[in-house]
Structures are given as C-alpha cells and as structure tokens.
Design a protein that fits this description.
Distance between the termini: 9 Å
Largest sheet: 11 strands, mixed
Number of strands: 11
CATH superfamily: Nucleoside phosphorylase domain
Helix content: 25-40%
Oligomer: single chain
Order of helices and strands: EEEEHEEEHEEHEHEH
CATH architecture: 3-Layer(aba) Sandwich
CATH class: Alpha Beta
Radius of gyration: 17 Å
Length: about 230
Amino acid sequence: MRAIIAGTSLLGSSVFETWKEATLSTPYGKVLLRKTPGYLFLQRHGAKKVPPHNINHLANVWALKRSGVTTVVAINSVGSLQPGLKPGTFAIPDDFFSPCRVPTFFEEEMKFTVPRMDERLAKQLYQISRSLDMKVSPGGVYIQTMGPRLETRAEIKFFRRYGDMVGMTLASEATLCMEQEIPYTSICSIDNYCHGIMKKPLTVTEIVRNASKSMQALQRLVRTLVEEKLP
C-alpha cells in the first residue's frame, strides 16, 4: 500500500473524487483517508482544514502505518530561499532542518531515529516528474518553520545560508514516518520567493495564485504515480 500526502494545493482537485472515503480512529484522533486499489490519499490538514501549526501529524502517520502503508510520496508547498528556485517550478529535497520542536512517537522511550529522505523513491519521483515535462530540481534543504505567520526578513536572511526552501509541514511529517520505518520523499511546489528574497514585496495573493497554477501539473503527477505503481 502506498500513500500520497498533500495539503491545500490539491484541496479542490478532482483526482480523488472516485476514491472511497474512510475514517480511521487512532489514539491521537480521527483521520479521514481516501482509498483506491494500492493507494491511500491523506489530506494533511484534515476535513476541517486546520492551519499548519495545528496539523495532527501523529494521528495522520499512525493511520498510515496501521493501514499498511509501505511508502509515502508527499506534496508540499514552499517558498524559495534561492533566486534560482523560481516560483512555478518544483523541487525534491534530500534533507530538512527544523529550528522548532517536531512531534515524536517516542515521548517516553529512549529511542533514536537517524532521519533520511528515501533516495530511491526520490530518484523515481524525479524521473517521473521529468517525463511529464515538469521543471523540477533534484536535492535541496527544506527548512520548517512553525507558522501560521510567514517568516520575517531577518529570519529569511538567516535561513538562506543553510537552506533552499521554507515550509511548515515536512520535517514533522517526515520524522514521524521515519520513526514508523515508512520510506518518505516529497515533491515541493515552489509557490513564491520568501519574504525579502526579491525587491518586490511578498503577498499572500501571489502565493495562492502560483499554487493554483501548479495544481494541474501536480494532478498529472498523481495520476501517473497511481497508474505506474511507484514501488
């Protein structure tokens, strides 16, 4: 069983209309899943569309594990820290960094996890994306912030020394998947330049507009992943 995790970029997508809905109860709360043979879809923000800082990552990943998921392909929306990573393109990060605390299943256990993005999945995802003529960059460091506000100019000036893109979900999600030994990779939709990267002031309207433009490419990608049965 494979899983696709996505957020608001695919919120209004028709891709999952025919997938069957199922609600799974977990020790951390209920999770809404959509199912088709061989695949699950998880809307990370849930049915109530909670903001990034309130996403129930523990419930989400627990539900995937108990559903027999063996690989995860995530779709994340990000801001670019580097002029070369242009809005309207995509990136497949190979590492992540979080200055904030991320959730864990091991609150009361002395158990450690070495976090690694899955290289094999990332390579396959890159090849499929390229075959669809998507402008995608391999590699890069994803920096996770807490949200819900965007980052200050000073924060972005600091982050760009160490990272390539900024978002609010991947580090938490990926860490929990790794704790549950579920291989994880992500394709990031670059929806804007971060605050202060370019002279033109950043607006929320710009972010929403660019995310909408990327949705068609992401829908084609999801359909292809399901058809080709990515291992």
